[in-house]
Amino acid sequence: MNMNSWLQELKTAPVKKSMPILSFPCVSLMNVTVKELVQDSDLQASGMQAIAQRVDSLAAVSMMDLSVEAEAFGMEITMTDSEVPVVNDAIVTSMEDAEKLQIPTVGTKRTGIYIEAIRKACTLISDRPVFAGVIGPFSLAGRLMDVTEALVNCYIEPDMVKLTMEKTTAFLIAYINAYKEAGANGVVIAEPLTGLLSPDLAQEFSEPYVRQIVDAVQTDDFIVIYHNCGNNVIEMIDSILNTGAAAYHFGNAISMEDMMTHIPPDTVAMGNIDPSAQFLNGTPESIREETLALMNRLCPRYPNFVISSGCDIPPMSKWENIHAYFNAIQEYYQK
Fold it and tell me: Does 335 have pLDDT greater than 90?
């Protein structure tokens, strides 16, 4: 599939399907736990297929498990039955740690499971693009160092941060290329930690590394969608756009209406219905109201806007809310 053409057609389409980051709620469809899902490629592929059969989405998106890459680097993780895995203690706390940090081979730990899941999903889903999901280079470095320490280290240990990021970037390029070889049509790179930086620090510690990844993996038939759900993304939007990603996805910490004033007309931007407040804890009535309100404000003015969730939809989200979201989109276009 020529993904550049896919994006062009999306911008000009009078009716635009939604691309929420919707994957983990498949657990309730298959009666499995999150812990089982994140360790089984067959379950992941079947879960993606189950969602694709249930909702008329723009694309299928894999499990956005941002612990996978950190685990491959050697971090311990905690798994539970109902939540996405979390990482534990930092493994890079000094320049010496950064120098000793080994770039893992693609396939290490659960990275092989996730690549195989995409390979299987691509044989099961043929009516829409299939996207893999990975963490961004600064967000991965932040997990290796501890999030708070990573932000501080940008000031007091910048060389340590940059050395760590050289290694996370090299790994992510290889990892994403493995997804491409497995048949994925693109990748969603989640770089949320960058959203806590100042614009100057984002330009120094995230932009060049994301751009290096985009330059290495993005082609006509494989695109990068950049996701950031931080609250500073509007202030750093010039730096974000400089990454060269094919499209952008933003969280609910910001006003999507304000963001769209900064997005070039030929660039697709997606967002930003609150995953927690609406998909997880809302009601069919509340999510319908929020979805229609956002579309009414933005769709007539911005043909390059695509409605989406603000971030990854939590595993325990209610399917009645998810269906209400898609029904609201259909209602908007029927008017």
Answer: no
